[in-house]
Amino acid sequence: MAHTFSLQAHLPEDHAQATLIGRIWQPGVGPVLVRIDADGAYDLTLIAATSSELLELDNPAAAVRAATNMTRIATLQELLDNADAAGRDTSRPWLLAPIDLQAVKASGVTFVASMLERVIEEQARGDAGKAESVRKAITAVIGDNLSSVVPGSPEAARLKEVLLEQGVWSQYLEVGIGPDAEIFTKAQPMSSVGLGDEVGIHPKSAWNNPEPEIVLAINSRGKVVGATLGNDVNLRDFEGRSALLLGKAKDNNASCAVGPFIRLFDANFSIDDVRRAELTMRVDGTEGFTLKGSSSMSMISRDPLQLVEHAIGPNHQYPDGLVLFLGTMFAPTQDRFGPGQGFTHQVADIVTISTPKLGALVNTVNFSDQTAPWTFGLTALFKNLANRKLI
Question: Which of these, 155, 178, 221, 253, is most buried using a 10 Å CB contact count?
Fold first, then answer.
């Protein structure tokens, strides 16, 4: 299923006021850090060779805006026209994920709706056919609205005692309303895919879903300097069988999509815009099936900056910075193939994640062993930069 990429769809609605950076693959050169303007992608190599290096500057947005005499590598529409991996012309530039050396971390169980679905996965042992009956049994005991419970609070501790007495406590409730947030490694540096690329689901997974999320860009000092969009592709059956399979449920080839651009924090965009963001998601299947969902950041259980504090600090450093997926309240229960079966992906699904201030991230689903293999890692990057005399 072909997809058309347009400036209107993929740029922020206020793009004239936005400070955007991205990465592109320039044939014959390699990965290039660029400033994204409506009329094109401009080479930022004289400021920083990598996205990670740029975000270490005292004021990345000011540095990007002040850059002059930059070379325009391509118009933005030319990049968008070459975004779809299925028809990509590798002799022309295309967009990459806007991150490189940063660690790719994610926050789990940060919204009540998804927290309940994680409990259901656990109780159903990863069997989608049992989900509906388990959902009814669980909500009969704990209800479907825990949004008033502040994680780590005395009220949360008392609720835990009550649930333990009733035999329904779960590891997902522990991280959802307990004192410690779940922070896990989503993917390795350099492995994330970008706009137009395929995202991968494990070929043995029969119950899986996209997870639309805002992703914070954080430097090595723990300062949040921007945000982008992400798809935390998730295998519900693998994780439901055992939480110890989280790595296999979350980290597969092409299972992490980030982009299309990082919007840097400045006078026109801040962490408060992240807190107010409304994400929408749409899945279009080749058989005519459509799934629509949304995720409101105002419903998050822990403030985004609290999640950052759980991820980086005196107990854990990231010298190349990190990006942090903030979690999602989107938990698809719409039946696709039969009553009580809920949602799962099919190959060739088109997933669109968008929010007005960050644009739209679009990817097509395939099995992870059929997506483009990840071959350009850290060693390849360092050799490339050395050959270009950038390190």
Answer: 253
